Structure formats: structure tokens, C-alpha cells
Amino acid sequence: MQSKDEIVTAVDRLSSELIATSRFLHLHPELAYEERESVQHLTSLLGAHGFEVIEGVGGLSTAFVASAGVDHPSATIAFLAEYDALPSLGHACGHNLIATSSIGAALALQPSLSALGGRVLVIGCPAEEKGGGKITLVKAGLFANVNAALLVHPSNRTEIFKNALAMRALRVEFFGKASHAAAAPHLGINALDAVVLSFTNLNALRQQLREDVRIHGIITDGGLAPNIIPDYAAARFCIRALDLEYLHDLQRRVVACFEAAAQATGATVAIHEEGEEYHPMQCNQALGTLFRVNLEALGERVEQTPEDQDLGSTDVGNVSQVVPTLQPTIALTDRLNVVCHSTAFAEAAGGPSGDRAMLLAAKALAMTAVDLFTDPAALRQVQEEFRLA
Questions:
Q1: pLDDT tens per residue, range 47-93
Q2: What is the CATH topology of the domain spanning 166-278?
Q3: What DSSP string runs through 143-164?
Q4: Which pTM does this prediction carry?
């Protein structure tokens, strides 16, 4: 049976291959549900190391499951690989590092799974940034026999526990009537005015909302020419809150803002839900404690800020509702102004600091899996906490 020291050595032996994989993903960013080149590269790597790979799982062409280990394991651990990128920014959320660290942990464990009595899955998860690929995989039952799901997200802090906001994406369309903007504006109905008024209504609504709520949007269509009253305009919004009940009430109030804008301008409105509803994160303290001990043993200092501070949303939250899940963060940089979804963060994710964080994450993930395979009491504690949550 491999010791944790041997696991660390195994990751070090794989480091050149893992860094090359991370850099490849970084140089070839692909958007949600279009990650074909990324999937081909990752599944080829896993297959070359003896993993059984199934592509197109859950009805998603860019999802996959790679498996290795015994048939009747003491535990089945899923490492989640994300690999979609952001429009224009590329891997400014560091998904190249998430994918590679999860795969690195699995590869390091693979030679000793028989001795450990365990089974490892690498679940390739498309479309975290837009669409919620993991939600589709949850609904397809891919986590039904998983004892714990693990991944590490790059950040500007190293933290073990972080909540996530529930989120719903909305697309709103307004339909008006075109007319000459100078000669006959009174004959038109301005759809763009309805979009602008929607933003104004939402700004007023914010005064009566909880501090955890976030509403943000962009105009995706504002008309064709300044001398034509726009007969069509559209916008996209994300709305977020810490819990689903409040999110659902928030959605009702946001929709009312859109409907009021249509009524005020004479436009008609169509409101569409986009993608899946992202759920909040269910943090597992027992699982996080195991990971923290391993991370600190590797020399990393943990800085735990309040769990509800500086939050985004992730479809990992939906996974955490069906299986014990952990998504800690590891710092790429000590510059707190370098944040996800920025050019500076994308540069860090493709450089030496990204390589360091990825290898560190792979080691701590693999060490935590060893704990779950070899310590039945620790596994029971993780599962009992999840059951009682």
C-alpha cells in the first residue's frame, strides 16, 4: 500500500506531464459545451494510464467518466474535472488547473488502488461557467454510487470552506414597433427603453434586498441604428442569493421589474430561464478537516475567511446536495486584487504559480482520498455529517 509520502512522490513524477496538460488547456480555451479538444486531450491522458474512459455520459457530448480500481471498493471517490473557459478571457477561472489537479490525483492513486481497496472516478464536467453541466450529470445519476466528490479551485486565498450562491440566469426580450427616430418617433414603441427601464427598476429593487443578493446583467441587443426606434431589444441577467427560497422570491420580483418596464413603454416582453438552477454549497466540515490536515502537511498555510464572504455560484453546489463534496481553494497569488474572471488571473493560471497550485492540489486531493479509503471511521463521519445536514 502506498504511503502518503509515496503519493506525493508519484505526483512529482507526473509533474512534467501534468504541467504540459494544464498549459495545453490554457492555450486552447473552449467555451461551454464546446470543449472537444480539451476532452480529447484529457481522456487520452487518462486512457494512456490505464483508466477505462466513457465519453458522452449524461447525454453531454463533452462529458466523460474515467474509472480505475476494485469492483467492490471500501469507497468510491470522484475527482471533478472542469475545463470550460470564458468568452474573450480564456481560462480566467483557472479551469485548466482544476481539470489537471483532479486528473493528477487520480493518476497518482491508480497504481495502488488494489492495495487501498478503493475506486476512483474522474468525472469530466463541461459547462460550469454557463449551463451547469454537473446538474445534468447529477440528474443522470452519475453520483449515485459515489462516497465523496472532490476538486480544488484556484483563488487568491487558500481556504477550505466556501459557500456558493444559488443562481438563476434569465434572458429577457422586449418587442416594440420601429419608426423613424426623428421624423415619427411618436409612431414607434421603443424596446430599448424597456431594457433601460428594467435596469432602473432593478436598481430601485436592490434597496429592499438582503445583502447576500446579487443582480447583474448586460444588454445583448439594443437596436440597429440610432435613427430607428428599436423594435427589439434584449438583455441577460444573473440573479443570486444564499438560499433557494429567497432566490425564488427574488426571481418573482425581478420578473415584475421586467413586466413593469414593458407596461410603462408599451412593449411586450418574453422572459426565459437559461440553463439550470445552481444550488448553494453544502459544506462538509469532516471532509474539509481531512483535506486541511493534508494541505498543511504539505507546507501550505490556510487562511479561512468567513464562509459567506466574496461568493460566486457553481454547479458544484448541486453535487453537494447529493453526495459529500469539498471544493477548497488554493492561492495562485498573494495579490488580493487579482481575482477570478480577470486578465491577471488568466495569466497566473497559465504560469509558474498556476503550476505550483495545480501540483499542490493534486497531492492534497490524493492524500485525502487515501484517508477515505483506509480510515472507515473518517468515512463514516463524512457520511453522517452529510446525512444530518
A1: 999 999 999 999 999 999 999 999 999 999 999 999 999 999 999 99
A2: Alpha-Beta Plaits (3.30.70)
A3: TTT-SEEE--EEESS-BS----
A4: 0.91
